[in-house]
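look at this:
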Amino acid sequence: MPILEKAGNTSIESNATVGATVNLITSANKARTQYFTYAQSIISAGDSGWIPIAAEAKGDCITMIIRFTTSDPSNPIHTIYQAIDYSANTGNILGLHLHDGGYITAENMLIEVEAAIKTKIPAPSQARAYFLPEREQEFLARFDWVINPKSASAAAPINTTVVSNITVDLSSLLQGISSKIDAISGSANDDVLGAGKGADKLTGASGADQFVFNTKDSFGAKGADTITDFNPEEGDQIVLSSNALPGLKTEPTFQAVSSKKALKAAQKSDSDLIYYQPLGQLFYDQNGSGKGFGSGGLFAVLSGAPVLEAADLAVF
């Protein structure tokens, strides 16, 4: 099976299809995760389900980070995380990390679940196990040792290349008209979907779709748009203009990185477009080698954190 993630001492292995087995691999063993399959708990069309994004072992304990992204524009909770501990030898659940700093063991989880079934009252730790958007930065910092293990391979940039120019036909553009969260969906054909004002959700469906960023919007969580099903193998492409990214060069440089350390280093380089692979985040670095992103920042999130290369982007 394909290796989905390997940045430290533990790899995640899965066929990456809904319901597929997920294995955690260390130098000593390979264990199947108990009660967890790839993309489980999908509620609505376009939801990602729970996707494993990182894992790291300490002794017999492997902490795995999973993420769920919903495409429902009426749902204020768009991306949530969980951190689960598994046995490196058996794959059995050892416990669950809680957002208030607490921890519940697998044994106590079972007791709570059995009580919840009898009383029809949600288990006390259920809500505390989800790290909601307002706790995202806190979560990422707390589990940085899992998402960005300190290793030379994790700190190395994936590539630095030039993004090409193309011509885009905007006559059939599908784009939201409000400044709130719009859900834009394509068809089985080759669609052109536009990111408008607000944190929109773009779903191309099948076909070679173009996701166009041609409207000026705020950077960061309030303005970043989510592409729910970006698939380079289908010919999908992200198309950018200086209208959306002021000051964007005609031939911008692109760099993909796999750790926070590399992300910070990339901000100080001459890269114009930076993709943070672990979280599927695409940034515009407006000031080149200056501090931070200048007047740029996060403008797109790719659900499922697919591999992204310069050939998957274009400028018009």
Summary: The first helix runs from residue 106 to 119. Residues 151-159 have pLDDT under 50 and may be disordered. The radius of gyration is 20 Å.
